[in-house]
Each structure stands twice: as C-alpha cells, then as structure tokens.
Specification:
Blueprint (H helix, E strand, L loop, with lengths): L5 E7 L5 H12 L4 E7 L10 H9 L13 H4 L8 E4 L2 H4 L11 E4 L12 H23 L8 H11 L3
Parallel strand pairs: 1-2, 1-3, 3-4
Helix pairs in contact: 1-5, 2-5
C-alpha cells in the first residue's frame, strides 16, 4: 500500500448513528493508513449525530471532534476526497441508488441494526449503541490489520465483501 491513506466512506440513511460510529472508529484505529468519512442518503434538516452515539464513542475513548451529519452529495461533488472504499452500514442505504463515485471505489454492505430505533429507554439505547460499536470495531479491526496486498484496488472489492461475513 502506498503512503497515501485509504479513504473509506460509510453510508447510512440519516448519518446520525451507525455511519458516524464507523467513521470515528476507523479514524481512531486507522493508524494513518486509513481515513474514515461518513454521510447519509437523506439526512434530515439540522440532523446531528445521535447524542447517545457520541457519548458511547467518548466512553470508549474515541474522539468525537468534527463529527457531523452530512449528505452523500458532499462526497460526489468536485473537489471531494477520492474514496477507495464505500461501505453501506444500513439496509435502507444499501438499496438506494447512489451517486456516481469518481474513480470506481470498491463497495460493500456491512449491515447493522439501528441502535437508535424503537421506543426503548435511554439505558436500553445506550446498550444497543455499545453493542453496535463493538460489532463495527471488530470488523474494522480486521480491515486495518489486512496485509497490503489485500488492500490493492483489485483485491479491495472482494476483501470488503468477505469482511461482511466476519
């Protein structure tokens, strides 16, 4: 792998929970070899990252600085960072028609249940966020520890899909 970090974009519908967790975790563990980004297909007006998700990250010692909800259009615009890998983390976003991504990045779907869904108490949602964070972290630990040959453009597509089964 070159000295240029591998850019990974995590997509979800509202960019408030799962994709935010994945962005923060990858930037925490990526060691300069990876840069995480996140976006949503349709973030709501004034959408912010879920406060329980942000607290879950802080409790795990992961920085929340700079995290914000944003549209995936931001990453399809001219001048946006080039993505090497795009991962959908919710089933809704996986089924949507995505923008054209310059450079034909590798893609994969790593589905996770929405920890903010339902009518559970804040304590129950906090546990759901913690479980989701651990599931995302487990898969991202595998990604960042892959040998360089598995991260080359041709192999990355297959590797990312295989990690969905991990």
């Amino acid at each position: 792998m070159s000295s240029k970090p591998l850019n990974v974009l995590f997509l979800c519908t509202h960019n408030s929970a799962r994709s935010i967790l994945a962005e923060a975790v990858l930037n925490h563990i990526g060691g300069g070899r990876f840069r995480g980004f996140s976006a949503g297909s349709s973030p709501r007006a004034n959408q912010q990252p879920h406060p329980i998700g942000l607290q879950t990250l802080r409790n795990a010692g992961i920085s929340t600085e700079g995290l914000r909800s944003k549209s995936w259009d931001e990453f399809a615009a001219p001048g946006a960072p080039h993505m090497d890998l795009i991962i959908t983390v919710c089933d809704n976003a996986a089924g949507e028609v995505c923008p054209f991504w310059p450079g034909k990045p590798a893609t994969a779907h790593w589905g996770y249940a929405d920890p903010s869904a339902g009518d559970g108490s804040d304590a129950e949602k906090a546990e759901a966020f913690k479980a989701t964070l651990h599931a995302i972290r487990r898969r991202l630990d595998l990604l960042v520890n892959l040998p360089a040959d598995k991260l080359q453009a041709m192999a990355l597509q297959q590797t990312a899909k295989e990690l969905a089964q991990a």
